[in-house]
Amino acid sequence: MQISLLSYLEPLLNVHHADNQQPDNLCGPYWISLLLKAYGDLNVSAIEVAIAASTILPSQGNPTDWLPPRATSLQGTDYDRIPTHTDLNICGTSIKGLVHATNTLSQEKFCLIPLQTTDWKTGLSAVLTLCHSHPTWQAIPLLNCHTSYFWGTNLSPFTLISYLQGQPVSPPAPDWSVGHFNVLIGDIHKDANRLYAILDTYPQFGWQGWHLQPAAAVSQSLQRPQQTSQGGLALFVKAELYSEIKQLITQQGLEISAWDNGSPTVDISESSTQ
Q1: Where does 2-80 show beta strands of DSSP type E?
Q2: Which residues, 6+ apart, have CB-to-CB distance to 224 below 8 Å?
């Protein structure tokens, strides 16, 4: 059995622990805020990221409509500055918006590289391998998953060990069913069986936001079969590394392109790093 976490996680884990939980409906902006704090020493709030990304929030409804089980509503200072809409289905943050916000708020010192592929099982492995083999990049894979494909996050040690040993298991039902942003921080594998280590925006999931998911479940959560929206992976990196990473990424069969996650696509010009 081999356990591999990204070697440069400590700055991110420190700010993740301090912030504890995302503001309502701001998972994508929350992550960009944490990443800019952790690796750019930039004090940017999730609210500021959301505004720069042209996020749209629901103007009505009960927080139970969008919160996961056991979570409490959290909004924060200046939350009311974010535009709203009556239709919950078109609210959220597009990946193009996050690309724009990352470049703008970091003054183009950092960027998001949005990736797509028709084979996420291979693609996820390739991206994680590149991150492990190039630790000086300090690249962080940001996943835009649909959580309906996940296993329940509070897995028992028996289930985890049985899965890694190739024994049949009965996976617990997912905790939530929504498009969501998570961070991929490593994996555990034994022979052909692999569990990805996921860092979440809600401490109610797993162990203070850490949980493990089978490779097939994570791949499906990005591919989103039978869903009208799309998922994908975006690498958070220093903008000066874009050309180097682009060359290696495309050699792995991944396409650098934004996806449609169901949130409104804002008319924002691509930055010079794209």
Answers
A1: 2-5, 57-58
A2: 146, 149, 230, 231
- Going by their DSSP bridges, the two strands 84-85 and 179-190 should be labelled as unpaired
Predicted TM-score (pTM) of the model is 0.94
**Length of the chain as a residue count:** 274
Residue type, 254: L
**Which of 233, 181, 188 lies closest to 214 in space, CA to CA?**
188
Determine the pLDDT at residue 267. Answer: 52
Exposure string for 88-118, b = 16+ CB within 10 A, e = fewer: beebbbbbbbbbbbbbebbeeebbbbbbbbe
Mean of the per-residue pLDDT values for the chain? Answer: 92
Residue 269: exposed, middle, or buried by beta-carbon count in 10 A (0-12, 13-18, 19+)? Answer: exposed
- Residue 174, Cβ neighbours under 10 Å: how many? 18
pLDDT in tens, 175-225: 999 999 999 999 998 887 899 999 999 999 999 999 999 999 999 999 999
pLDDT digits (tens, 9 = 90+) for 236-254: 999 999 999 999 999 999 9
Give dist(CA 54, CA 59) in Å, integer. Answer: 15
In angstroms, the CA 258 to CA 250 distance is 15
Q: Which amino acid is at 264?
A: P
